[in-house]
Amino acid sequence: MRQVVFCILWIAVFCVPTVLVNAADIEDGLWMYLPLNEGAGEQVIDHGPNNFDTELSEVPPKSVAAEHNNIATAMEFDGKSNYVMIDMAGQGKDIDSHFDEGKGMTICAWVKVLDVATDTHGQTRQPVVMKGGANQWEFALYVYDNFGAGMSVWTCPGSGVSEPSTADAAPQDKWIHQCGTFKLQEGVRVYVDGNEDPVAQADDNGNGPCEEGDRPVFIAHREDGQFLNAVIAEVYIWERVIDIDEMNLAMNTIGGLTPVQPGGKLTTTWGNIKRR
Question: What is the pLDDT of residue 85?
Protein backbone atom coordinates (compact mmCIF):
# COMPACT_ATOMS: atom_id res chain seq x y z
CA MET A 1 0.00 0.00 0.00
CA ARG A 2 2.82 2.38 0.88
CA GLN A 3 4.39 1.70 -2.51
CA VAL A 4 1.14 2.60 -4.27
CA VAL A 5 0.82 5.88 -2.36
CA PHE A 6 4.47 6.68 -3.04
CA CYS A 7 3.97 6.11 -6.78
CA ILE A 8 0.92 8.37 -6.86
CA LEU A 9 2.79 11.13 -5.05
CA TRP A 10 5.77 10.69 -7.34
CA ILE A 11 3.57 11.07 -10.42
CA ALA A 12 1.86 14.12 -8.93
CA VAL A 13 5.17 15.82 -8.17
CA PHE A 14 6.26 15.57 -11.78
CA CYS A 15 2.89 16.08 -13.52
CA VAL A 16 1.56 19.12 -11.64
CA PRO A 17 4.46 21.42 -12.57
CA THR A 18 4.02 20.37 -16.21
CA VAL A 19 0.33 21.31 -16.12
CA LEU A 20 1.17 24.64 -14.50
CA VAL A 21 3.85 25.44 -17.06
CA ASN A 22 1.48 24.60 -19.92
CA ALA A 23 -1.28 26.67 -18.35
CA ALA A 24 1.15 29.57 -18.03
CA ASP A 25 1.98 29.12 -21.73
CA ILE A 26 -1.60 29.70 -22.85
CA GLU A 27 -1.59 32.93 -20.85
CA ASP A 28 1.23 34.21 -23.08
CA GLY A 29 -0.34 36.78 -25.39
CA LEU A 30 -3.81 36.33 -23.90
CA TRP A 31 -5.82 39.46 -24.69
CA MET A 32 -9.35 38.68 -23.46
CA TYR A 33 -10.99 35.80 -21.61
CA LEU A 34 -14.75 35.64 -20.99
CA PRO A 35 -15.86 32.43 -19.24
CA LEU A 36 -19.52 33.60 -19.55
CA ASN A 37 -20.27 31.59 -16.43
CA GLU A 38 -21.47 34.31 -14.05
CA GLY A 39 -24.86 32.68 -13.62
CA ALA A 40 -26.77 35.91 -14.24
CA GLY A 41 -27.60 37.95 -17.30
CA GLU A 42 -26.63 41.28 -15.80
CA GLN A 43 -22.86 40.99 -15.97
CA VAL A 44 -20.02 39.49 -17.96
CA ILE A 45 -16.51 39.68 -16.53
CA ASP A 46 -13.29 39.69 -18.53
CA HIS A 47 -10.72 37.58 -16.68
CA GLY A 48 -7.95 38.42 -19.13
CA PRO A 49 -4.99 40.69 -18.36
CA ASN A 50 -6.69 43.82 -19.71
CA ASN A 51 -9.76 43.52 -17.45
CA PHE A 52 -12.04 44.98 -20.09
CA ASP A 53 -15.39 46.40 -19.07
CA THR A 54 -18.25 44.77 -20.95
CA GLU A 55 -21.75 45.88 -21.94
CA LEU A 56 -24.82 43.79 -22.66
CA SER A 57 -27.67 44.34 -25.11
CA GLU A 58 -30.87 45.97 -23.84
CA VAL A 59 -32.40 42.50 -23.72
CA PRO A 60 -29.44 40.59 -22.30
CA PRO A 61 -28.48 37.04 -23.21
CA LYS A 62 -29.68 34.41 -20.74
CA SER A 63 -27.52 32.51 -18.30
CA VAL A 64 -28.38 28.83 -18.75
CA ALA A 65 -27.30 25.39 -17.62
CA ALA A 66 -24.78 24.40 -20.27
CA GLU A 67 -25.68 20.70 -20.48
CA HIS A 68 -22.01 20.05 -21.09
CA ASN A 69 -19.88 17.51 -19.23
CA ASN A 70 -17.46 20.12 -17.95
CA ILE A 71 -19.18 23.51 -18.30
CA ALA A 72 -21.83 24.21 -15.70
CA THR A 73 -23.15 27.57 -16.88
CA ALA A 74 -23.01 29.42 -20.20
CA MET A 75 -24.83 32.24 -22.01
CA GLU A 76 -27.62 31.70 -24.51
CA PHE A 77 -28.05 34.24 -27.34
CA ASP A 78 -31.44 34.45 -29.05
CA GLY A 79 -30.25 35.17 -32.60
CA LYS A 80 -32.36 38.34 -32.78
CA SER A 81 -31.16 40.98 -30.33
CA ASN A 82 -28.70 39.58 -27.75
CA TYR A 83 -25.01 40.39 -27.56
CA VAL A 84 -22.05 41.18 -25.33
CA MET A 85 -19.98 44.21 -26.35
CA ILE A 86 -16.37 44.96 -25.42
CA ASP A 87 -15.23 48.44 -26.49
CA MET A 88 -11.49 47.79 -26.45
CA ALA A 89 -10.55 50.95 -28.36
CA GLY A 90 -12.70 53.07 -26.05
CA GLN A 91 -10.73 51.64 -23.13
CA GLY A 92 -7.40 52.43 -24.79
CA LYS A 93 -6.37 48.82 -25.50
CA ASP A 94 -7.54 47.95 -29.00
CA ILE A 95 -6.20 44.69 -30.44
CA ASP A 96 -3.96 45.22 -33.48
CA SER A 97 -2.05 41.96 -33.71
CA HIS A 98 -3.81 40.70 -36.86
CA PHE A 99 -1.89 43.22 -38.97
CA ASP A 100 1.40 42.66 -37.10
CA GLU A 101 3.47 40.17 -39.12
CA GLY A 102 5.29 39.06 -35.97
CA LYS A 103 2.15 38.25 -33.98
CA GLY A 104 -1.12 37.19 -35.59
CA MET A 105 -4.17 36.24 -33.56
CA THR A 106 -6.29 33.38 -32.25
CA ILE A 107 -9.95 33.28 -31.23
CA CYS A 108 -11.43 30.25 -29.43
CA ALA A 109 -14.83 29.51 -27.91
CA TRP A 110 -17.12 26.69 -26.89
CA VAL A 111 -20.22 26.99 -29.11
CA LYS A 112 -23.50 25.09 -29.35
CA VAL A 113 -25.47 26.34 -32.35
CA LEU A 114 -29.21 26.26 -31.71
CA ASP A 115 -30.35 27.54 -35.10
CA VAL A 116 -29.12 29.57 -38.08
CA ALA A 117 -30.62 32.31 -40.25
CA THR A 118 -32.71 33.61 -37.35
CA ASP A 119 -31.81 37.28 -37.77
CA THR A 120 -33.48 37.81 -41.21
CA HIS A 121 -30.31 39.60 -42.26
CA GLY A 122 -29.98 37.79 -45.56
CA GLN A 123 -26.31 36.89 -45.24
CA THR A 124 -25.34 33.26 -44.82
CA ARG A 125 -23.31 33.54 -41.61
CA GLN A 126 -23.51 34.78 -38.04
CA PRO A 127 -20.60 35.71 -35.75
CA VAL A 128 -19.42 34.00 -32.59
CA VAL A 129 -16.90 36.82 -32.09
CA MET A 130 -16.85 39.88 -34.37
CA LYS A 131 -14.99 43.18 -34.77
CA GLY A 132 -15.79 45.66 -37.51
CA GLY A 133 -18.14 48.18 -39.03
CA ALA A 134 -18.43 50.31 -42.17
CA ASN A 135 -14.94 50.88 -43.63
CA GLN A 136 -13.47 49.37 -40.47
CA TRP A 137 -13.99 45.65 -41.08
CA GLU A 138 -11.43 43.58 -39.19
CA PHE A 139 -12.17 39.94 -38.25
CA ALA A 140 -14.81 37.43 -37.16
CA LEU A 141 -15.12 33.85 -35.95
CA TYR A 142 -18.21 32.62 -37.79
CA VAL A 143 -20.94 29.99 -37.95
CA TYR A 144 -22.58 29.58 -41.38
CA ASP A 145 -26.14 28.73 -42.40
CA ASN A 146 -24.90 25.31 -43.55
CA PHE A 147 -23.69 24.78 -39.96
CA GLY A 148 -20.19 25.47 -41.16
CA ALA A 149 -17.35 26.72 -38.98
CA GLY A 150 -15.26 29.56 -40.40
CA MET A 151 -13.27 32.71 -39.81
CA SER A 152 -12.91 35.93 -41.82
CA VAL A 153 -10.27 38.65 -41.91
CA TRP A 154 -10.91 41.72 -44.09
CA THR A 155 -9.47 44.89 -45.51
CA CYS A 156 -11.05 48.04 -44.07
CA PRO A 157 -13.62 48.35 -46.90
CA GLY A 158 -14.60 44.73 -46.39
CA SER A 159 -12.74 42.78 -49.08
CA GLY A 160 -11.66 39.33 -47.96
CA VAL A 161 -8.06 38.87 -46.91
CA SER A 162 -8.68 35.26 -45.89
CA GLU A 163 -12.07 33.72 -45.04
CA PRO A 164 -12.49 29.95 -45.26
CA SER A 165 -15.35 27.82 -43.92
CA THR A 166 -16.49 24.20 -44.10
CA ALA A 167 -20.11 22.97 -43.95
CA ASP A 168 -21.36 20.77 -41.10
CA ALA A 169 -18.33 21.47 -38.91
CA ALA A 170 -20.60 23.10 -36.27
CA PRO A 171 -23.58 20.68 -36.04
CA GLN A 172 -26.87 21.92 -34.63
CA ASP A 173 -27.41 21.37 -30.89
CA LYS A 174 -23.92 19.96 -30.37
CA TRP A 175 -21.12 21.56 -28.38
CA ILE A 176 -17.92 22.15 -30.33
CA HIS A 177 -14.70 23.93 -29.41
CA GLN A 178 -14.01 26.26 -32.33
CA CYS A 179 -10.72 28.11 -32.85
CA GLY A 180 -9.60 30.38 -35.66
CA THR A 181 -6.07 31.65 -36.26
CA PHE A 182 -4.72 34.28 -38.64
CA LYS A 183 -1.22 35.41 -39.45
CA LEU A 184 0.07 37.54 -42.30
CA GLN A 185 1.49 35.46 -45.17
CA GLU A 186 -0.09 32.34 -43.64
CA GLY A 187 -3.80 33.15 -43.73
CA VAL A 188 -6.66 31.66 -41.70
CA ARG A 189 -6.89 28.20 -40.14
CA VAL A 190 -10.08 26.97 -38.41
CA TYR A 191 -9.90 24.10 -35.91
CA VAL A 192 -12.65 22.12 -34.17
CA ASP A 193 -12.36 20.11 -30.94
CA GLY A 194 -8.59 20.41 -30.75
CA ASN A 195 -7.93 18.26 -33.81
CA GLU A 196 -4.56 18.82 -35.45
CA ASP A 197 -5.94 19.15 -38.97
CA PRO A 198 -7.92 22.34 -39.63
CA VAL A 199 -11.50 21.92 -40.87
CA ALA A 200 -11.04 24.99 -43.09
CA GLN A 201 -8.08 27.05 -44.26
CA ALA A 202 -7.22 29.74 -46.78
CA ASP A 203 -4.06 31.61 -47.63
CA ASP A 204 -3.46 35.32 -47.10
CA ASN A 205 -4.32 36.97 -50.43
CA GLY A 206 -1.78 39.72 -49.83
CA ASN A 207 -4.22 42.64 -49.50
CA GLY A 208 -3.39 43.13 -45.83
CA PRO A 209 -6.00 43.36 -43.04
CA CYS A 210 -7.56 46.57 -41.78
CA GLU A 211 -5.24 48.74 -39.69
CA GLU A 212 -7.74 51.53 -39.04
CA GLY A 213 -10.59 49.76 -37.26
CA ASP A 214 -11.58 50.84 -33.78
CA ARG A 215 -15.05 49.30 -33.53
CA PRO A 216 -15.95 47.26 -30.44
CA VAL A 217 -15.72 43.49 -30.24
CA PHE A 218 -19.10 41.73 -30.07
CA ILE A 219 -20.11 38.26 -28.99
CA ALA A 220 -22.93 36.79 -31.16
CA HIS A 221 -23.56 40.03 -33.09
CA ARG A 222 -22.34 42.01 -36.09
CA GLU A 223 -23.04 45.71 -36.17
CA ASP A 224 -24.84 45.68 -39.53
CA GLY A 225 -27.51 43.33 -38.20
CA GLN A 226 -26.34 39.74 -37.82
CA PHE A 227 -27.07 37.78 -34.63
CA LEU A 228 -26.17 34.21 -33.68
CA ASN A 229 -28.62 31.85 -31.97
CA ALA A 230 -26.30 29.75 -29.83
CA VAL A 231 -25.05 28.91 -26.37
CA ILE A 232 -21.49 30.20 -25.91
CA ALA A 233 -18.85 29.79 -23.21
CA GLU A 234 -15.11 30.20 -22.62
CA VAL A 235 -14.30 32.91 -25.18
CA TYR A 236 -10.59 33.61 -25.62
CA ILE A 237 -8.64 36.04 -27.81
CA TRP A 238 -4.84 35.90 -28.04
CA GLU A 239 -2.59 38.40 -29.83
CA ARG A 240 -0.61 35.51 -31.33
CA VAL A 241 -1.20 32.19 -33.09
CA ILE A 242 -1.39 29.45 -30.47
CA ASP A 243 -0.48 25.86 -31.30
CA ILE A 244 -2.61 22.71 -31.18
CA ASP A 245 -1.38 21.67 -27.74
CA GLU A 246 -2.36 25.07 -26.36
CA MET A 247 -5.78 24.83 -28.03
CA ASN A 248 -6.32 21.50 -26.32
CA LEU A 249 -5.25 22.92 -22.97
CA ALA A 250 -7.64 25.86 -23.41
CA MET A 251 -10.41 23.45 -24.44
CA ASN A 252 -9.83 21.24 -21.41
CA THR A 253 -9.30 23.99 -18.84
CA ILE A 254 -12.76 25.20 -17.90
CA GLY A 255 -12.88 28.34 -15.77
CA GLY A 256 -9.21 27.79 -14.96
CA LEU A 257 -7.79 31.24 -15.59
CA THR A 258 -8.68 33.73 -12.90
CA PRO A 259 -7.08 37.08 -11.97
CA VAL A 260 -5.64 36.79 -8.48
CA GLN A 261 -3.13 39.61 -8.39
CA PRO A 262 -3.60 43.38 -8.53
CA GLY A 263 -3.24 44.95 -11.95
CA GLY A 264 -4.82 42.05 -13.77
CA LYS A 265 -1.76 39.81 -13.80
CA LEU A 266 -2.84 36.21 -14.22
CA THR A 267 -1.59 33.25 -12.32
CA THR A 268 -2.83 29.69 -12.58
CA THR A 269 -2.80 27.12 -9.79
CA TRP A 270 -3.68 23.46 -9.64
CA GLY A 271 -6.61 24.31 -7.36
CA ASN A 272 -8.43 26.43 -9.96
CA ILE A 273 -7.78 24.23 -12.99
CA LYS A 274 -10.78 21.99 -13.67
CA ARG A 275 -9.61 19.47 -16.22
CA ARG A 276 -11.80 17.09 -18.22
Answer: 98
